[in-house]
Design a protein that fits this description.
Layout lengths: L2 H13 L7 E3 H11 L1 H21 L5 E10 L4 E3 L3 H7 L6 E4 L2 E14 L1 H69 L4 H35 L7 E3 L15 H11 L1 H22 L4 E11 L9 E10 L7 H68 L4 H36 L6
Parallel strand pairs: 1-6
Antiparallel strand pairs: 2-5, 3-4, 5-7, 7-8
Helix pairs in contact: 1-6, 2-5, 3-5, 5-6, 5-8, 5-10, 7-9, 8-9, 9-10
């Protein structure tokens, strides 16, 4: 059995009854990504946890209600007994007053109303800013994942185009093998030409196997991003020219759009606001706090007043005059964190502007490379066709055909890669500008 026949059997066994691969459009896949991606789910849960911190921070500003009950038994009982005339004059019950009952059941309902709590005001503001930062972080994660997924989908499309190019190259190599064998049988060519042609055919089969493996690997990666265990094929729209507003737009215009839209900058700004609220909260620790409390109580044994129920109300003022340096330490820490947050925000802004600049240049380069790759592919196709005709006419060797076919295959691969790079550059610029690739 020849090497060519053996390779055909191997490929036939590898591709017989292939398992169906689920197929999604890019828009449907992005919607599924929003629902099922595990990294995005973690980011959203962090934002939800931050909203819980807001509730915790607001609790010192909200009235609290507490109910308590007590079942009591003393080792001894003590009652104040007086002559009846003295009890009557004192307004006490005739049986006297139990100072320490032997057994007692009592219940109390207490209400505390905060009136002035300056530090809690700023703690709530800090928590709300932290919540906005967490939500902006989730938005940034979502944008990054969607852009990365779209770029991976275009890379997967390029891998499929490489498979098509490899199949076409294999067809050309097989045709060259048949042509060389006919020439050897006719005595017009040396057996070495047929051997070289068969060697080239085996090489092209190897390229096809590798290209198909790359397609499978890319589809599995897309499936993992979607939270699936198996592969997924994603169909992407054909990109035309770049959007008009992106063609030749100056960097300052693109930069202003990015600064206004990027969630990373919103995250940094929210963190700055949170840290500044923390500074104000540390200063507010020096201010007094005022609250009012009320309680209603009832017992099965009369109190010393002779009544089984009653109430009390208090107005509480707390003013920390010196806390051992805790407030000073917290204030220094908060001021340092605020300075750090402002520096981080400025660094993020500069990084975004640099990213926009690089993405814009990448798109220009990708567009030029795509044009050049198209020209190279056209020239390679003409050269390969001319070499085959010359070989059939006996004026060119099989090496000329092999070399031209190899150049054509390389040009096909480069063209597929150039298409993918241009599409990825468009998505990358959208990402740098804060635009959703699925819009």
């Amino acid at each position: 059995m020849s090497n060519a026949a053996l390779w055909m059997l191997v490929l036939a066994g590898a591709t017989a009854n292939p398992a169906p691969v689920p197929e999604r459009t890019l828009s449907a896949a992005l919607a599924e990504l929003d629902r099922q991606n595990l990294t995005l789910a973690q980011a959203r849960e962090r934002a939800r946890a931050a909203s819980g911190v807001v509730w915790q921070s607001a609790s010192p500003l909200v009235p609290t209600v507490t109910a308590s009950g007590q079942a009591l038994r003393n080792s001894d009982e003590f009652a104040l007994t007086l002559p009846p005339n003295l009890l009557s004059l004192a307004g006490l019950p005739a049986g006297g007053v139990k100072i320490q009952p032997l057994e007692q059941l009592s219940a109390t309902l207490s209400v505390r109303v905060p009136l002035v709590v300056p530090t809690a005001w700023f703690d709530v503001a800090q928590a709300r800013s932290a919540e906005r930062a967490a939500r902006a972080g989730a938005d940034a994660t979502r944008l990054q994942l969607r852009a990365g997924f779209a770029q991976a989908a275009y890379a997967s499309l390029a891998a499929e185009e490489v498979v098509v190019a490899a199949e076409r190259a294999l067809t050309d190599a097989a045709e060259l093998t048949r042509s060389a064998e006919r020439r050897v049988k006719a005595g017009t060519s040396a057996p070495l030409d047929a051997l070289k042609a068969r060697t080239e055919e085996v090489s092209r089969r190897s390229d096809l196997v590798r290209a198909r493996a790359d397609v499978d690997r890319g589809r599995i990666s897309l499936g993992v991003l979607l939270g699936r265990e198996g592969p997924v094929r994603v169909t992407v729209p054909e990109l035309g020219a770049a959007p008009v507003e992106l063609e030749g737009a100056p960097d300052d215009v693109l930069g202003r759009e990015a600064v206004a839209r990027r969630p990373e900058l919103a995250l940094q700004q929210a963190q700055v606001e949170a840290s500044e609220a923390g500074v104000r909260s540390s200063w507010a620790r020096l201010a007094p706090q005022l609250s009012a409390s009320g309680a209603a109580f009832v017992s099965d044994v009369p109190y010393p007043t002779g009544q089984k129920d009653g109430w009390r109300a208090t107005l509480d003022l707390t003013w920390p005059l010196w806390d051992g340096g805790l407030g000073v330490g917290k204030r220094r820490q908060a001021e340092a964190q605020a300075a750090e947050a402002r520096a981080a925000a400025e660094a993020e802004r500069l990084a975004v502007l640099e990213e926009v600049h690089d993405a814009s240049r990448d798109l220009d380069v990708a567009r030029e490379q795509l044009d050049l790759a198209g020209q190279r592919r056209g020239l390679a196709a003409e050269t390969a066709a001319s070499a085959r005709r010359s070989f059939e006419a006996g004026v060119a060797s099989s090496l000329d055909v092999i070399d031209s076919n190899d150049r054509l295959f390389t040009a096909d691969v480069n063209l597929a890669a150039a298409r993918a790079r241009r599409a990825q550059a468009v998505v990358g610029l959208d990402r740098a500008l804060g635009r959703d690739p699925g819009r």
